């Protein structure tokens, strides 16, 4: 009758579900996708290859990768009526609001109830979504700056196509910078999937009722937007800019430790990692590469490095096992490439769509799958009789 609310997604085991996609050892800081560690994948693989791995369970052969990339490239365009959908948003609408709305609207364009029963068709529609996310994301950015949309160019790579649709203009030829393309592709790999995080659990729970896949992914996008989750990349860079100079770091570290202050170090801490997030290590290395290539020196990087150093040597952070996570450095790279902070979580959602789709496919392929039904510990009043209004 008493006690705290406990969230049980309604699955039979104490874990929320069984999955073969991603393994995390939070104490050791290990992240594997189908058995391959994120360090090797981010250094040696491509986002299309990792997408294939997550969706199919094995690294593809050259022919399989070419075929997968070809299929994806043939679904990158949006229905023209959807392009007009953007015009209903205010120009200053947050791109995550636009992405959430447009992806949800896809459920009105690419699905009817008869398909729901056909898992294979639901899988095809999910690949279609992976193809359209770069177009949807780029269009959200273009709309926010009042520039015309660019159609996809299927001669470019998945990531190169996204960069061109985002930063290209009809009046000029756009040359994809291979160093930026590689860094962006690596960032997509680092964000592709992460076990049963809040947004993935949202997609699974929504999808467990047999709902339209696009509507389920829109629910995941909404959840990812929160600053405690994917929205932390935008919040982390805004925090680093607010700190501004290394001499102001101690003040913010003390604020983060003050229980009466709602401020937290954005990009720090994690529900699962009680060690360094292996993705943050790759991110920090990529910052150096991008700054060298673009010959930029954003002072916020020095603030981030010194903040990390001070926090990791602070007894509070040591005791609470708080380390930088995937969101701590990512914004510095994205800002150097030219993205505004409002686009950071959109890029996270673009990449995480692969994980959401793979997790969703895994769930609908399980013949024993049941609808999720979270339970609770009830803490309200015990049973009592109604009191008529005249007696109250
Ligand atoms: C992502 O789940 C995933 O896998 C998510 C993700 C993915 O790929 O999908 O990895 C992506 O969402 C990464 C997290 C991004 N969020 C942020 O960077 C926001 C800042 N961090 C936090 O708000 C926080 O760390 C959470 C929300 C991520 C986790 O919060 P919890 O559940 O409170 O973490 P915890 O239980 O480990 O906290 C232990 C203690 C708590 O204090 P006490 O209650 O023990 O006194 O550490 C404190 C927390 O209050 N704490 C922090 C802190 N994070 C936790 N104190 C200051 N600054 C922080 N950042």
Please explain how this structure is put together:
It contains 18 helices and three strands. Helices cover 55% and strands 3% of the residues. The two termini are 26 Å apart. With 392 residues, the chain is mainly alpha-helical. It has a three-stranded antiparallel sheet with strand order 1-2-3. The protein has helices at 38-44, 47-56, 62-73, 80-86, 95-106, 113-116, 119-145, 158-167, 178-191, 198-207, 213-224, 232-243, 249-257, 278-294, 299-312, 315-320, 327-337, 344-364; strands spanning 22-25, 30-33, 36-37. Mean pLDDT is 92; it is low at 1-13. Strand 1 and strand 2 form a beta hairpin. The structure holds s-citryldethia Coenzyme A. The site of s-citryldethia Coenzyme A has 21 residues, from loops.
Ligands and ions found = s-citryldethia Coenzyme A
Give the percentage of residues in beta strands: under 5%
Helix content percent band: 40-55%
Classification by helices and strands: mainly alpha
The ordered H/E elements are EEEHHHHHHHHHHHHHHHHHH
Mean pLDDT over the full residue set:
92
Main beta-sheet annotation: 3 strands, antiparallel
Radius of gyration: 22 Å
Q: Please count the beta strands (DSSP E, at least 2 residues each).
A: 3
Order of strands across the biggest sheet?
Answer: 1-2-3
Which regions are unreliable across 5 or more consecutive residues at pLDDT < 50?
1-13
Pfam families: Citrate_synt (PF00285)
Protein name: Citrate synthase
Pathway: Carbohydrate metabolism; tricarboxylic acid cycle; isocitrate from oxaloacetate: step 1/2
InterPro entries: Citrate_synth-like_lrg_a-sub, Citrate_synth-like_sm_a-sub, Citrate_synthase, Citrate_synthase_AS, Citrate_synthase_bac-typ, Citrate_synthase_sf, Citrate_synthase_typ-I
């Amino acid at each position: 009758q008493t006690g705290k609310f406990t969230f049980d997604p309604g699955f039979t085991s104490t874990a929320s579900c069984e999955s073969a996609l991603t393994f995390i050892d939070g104490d050791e800081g290990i992240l594997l996708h189908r058995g391959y560690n994120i360090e090797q994948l981010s250094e040696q693989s491509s986002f299309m290859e990792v997408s294939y791995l997550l969706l199919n369970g094995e690294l593809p052969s050259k022919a399989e990768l070419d075929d997968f990339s070809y299929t994806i490239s043939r679904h990158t365009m949006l229905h023209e009526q959807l392009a007009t959908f953007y015009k209903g948003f205010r120009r200053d609408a947050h791109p995550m609001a636009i992405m959430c709305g447009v992806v949800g609207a896809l459920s009105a364009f690419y699905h009817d109830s008869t398909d729901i029963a056909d898992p294979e068709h639901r899988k095809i529609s999910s690949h279609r979504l992976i193809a359209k996310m770069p177009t949807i994301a780029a269009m959200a950015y273009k709309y926010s700056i009042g520039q015309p949309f660019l159609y996809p160019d299927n001669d470019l790579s998945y990531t190169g196509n996204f960069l061109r649709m985002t930063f290209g203009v009809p009046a000029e030829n756009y040359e994809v910078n291979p160093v930026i393309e590689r860094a962006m592709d690596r960032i997509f790999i680092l964000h592709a999937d992460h076990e049963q995080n809040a947004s993935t659990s949202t997609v699974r729970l929504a999808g467990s009722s047999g709902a339209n896949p696009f509507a389920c992914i829109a629910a995941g996008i909404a959840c990812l937007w929160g600053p405690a989750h994917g929205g932390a990349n935008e919040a982390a860079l805004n925090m680093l800019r607010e700190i501004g100079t290394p001499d102001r770091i101690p003040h913010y570290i003390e604020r983060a430790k003050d229980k009466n202050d709602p401020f937290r170090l954005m990009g720090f801490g994690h529900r699962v990692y009680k060690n360094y997030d292996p993705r943050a290590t790759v991110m920090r290395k990529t910052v150096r590469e991008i700054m060298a290539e673009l010959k930029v020196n954003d002072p916020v990087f020095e603030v981030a490095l010194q903040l990390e150093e001070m926090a990791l040597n602070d007894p509070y952070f040591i005791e609470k096992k708080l380390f930088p996570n995937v969101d701590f450095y990512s914004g510095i790279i994205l800002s150097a490439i030219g993205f505004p902070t409002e686009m950071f979580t959109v890029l996270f959602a673009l990449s995480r769509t692969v994980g959401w789709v793979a997790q969703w496919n895994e769930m609908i392929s399980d013949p024993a799958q049941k609808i999720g039904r979270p339970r609770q510990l009830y803490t309200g009043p015990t049973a009592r009789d109604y009191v008529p209004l005249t007696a109250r």
